[in-house]
Amino acid sequence: MSQSTVPRPPVPRESGGQANKPAPAARKVPRRRGRKDPRLAGGIGLRHRLRRDWVLVAMTLPAVVLLLVFAYIPIAGNVIAFQFYSPYAGDGFFDSMANSAWIGMENFQRMLDDSDFWNAVQNTLMFSSLQLILFFPIPIALALLINSILHSKIRAWTQAVLYLPHFFSWVLVITVFQQMFGGAGLVAQLARDWGLTDSFDLMTDPGFFKWLVTAQVIWKDAGWGIIVFLAALSMVNSELYESAAVDGAGRWRRMWHVTLPALRPVIALLLVLQVGNMLTVGSEQFLIQRTAVGPGASEVLDSYVWNRGIANGDFSYAAAIGIVKGVFSLALVLAANRVAHAMGEQGVYSRR
Fold first, then answer.
1. Entry pTM
2. Where is this region: Disordered (predicted)?
3. Which of 24-28, 118-122, 308-312 has the lowest average pLDDT?
């Protein structure tokens, strides 16, 4: 008979009766209750991290101090919204705040009964909605356009031209628009030369003011807004475009199926932040043009707070408006972020 070629298991040797004795169990490391040992988890303790990253901490410390001084400590000043605050009631702000009379919710009730306040809210929502619809998509389109330019010098020149108006002040921007669309501007002179009209002046038309403001914002800040989108486009893997081209996808289908999905998280994040800033449309742009179109068409919340709180000295009422504005802005951010989560995006923060 032929022997089987299947190997047999080795027979353990006897060594003093210890062959069949099981191996000793591994020694258990006692666990500490409450706090987890960072060495067991592969982490580093806080003291070691501070010692290792002290240079980064020192670089961040001035920014943290500025944030505390100019963002968090002034929150204590919101107390004057519940007072009849007078800066002459004491020596310094805190002394005056301590000596001012408490009036409770009177400033908030006054706000609800103020027709000028509701007019400012209506104008603010109208301007912010137009900017959200008309201004927000333009940086995306410009980023896609610049990204499609192959020649590096032409791309750099285009970026520089588009960035330049962002560094102009609002005084200069409005002056440029005045020279173009004012009563003595270029368009008005051409209209008179061609015999179309003798009273062309868009800068003083209250009905056209909302479109004029939106055009000014687009011309000034659209080029600056493409920076984030260009940074996101630079992270897209070029092999995705090559694979799509091999599969027969044209330029528009590559943009729709490769480029826009890569920009989707950034678009969702910026859209959430834009919705949260709907009650903040700036004040300088509107204060400069206030006399030309009147307060009924140009008054927004920021300019209203300036006129009532700073110009007229009604600090308590302005502080009450600021509290309401902050609460509603926070609610808008949370609502927009929840919508982003429902659409599968992270938004400002994740759900975990």
1. 0.73
2. 1-40
3. 24-28
